[in-house]
Amino acid sequence: MKKTKYALYLAVSVFLLGSCVPTELKKPDIGAAPTAADLQITINPGADPYHFIITNTSTVTGIANWDLGNGAVANGDEVIAYYALPDTYTITMTLYTRGGNATTSTTTVTTETDWAYFSNPVITLICGGPEAVNGKTWAMDSLAAGHIGVGPDLANSKLWWAAGPMEKPNAGLYDDEINFSIFEFKVTYNNKGVSFVKDFRRTDPNYSMARSAVGDWMVNYVTPVSGVWTFVERDGKQYIKITSGKPIYPCFDTGAKDGEYLILNVTETSLELACIGGDNNAWHYLLKTK
Question: Are 93 and 136 within one domain?
Answer without folding.
Answer: no
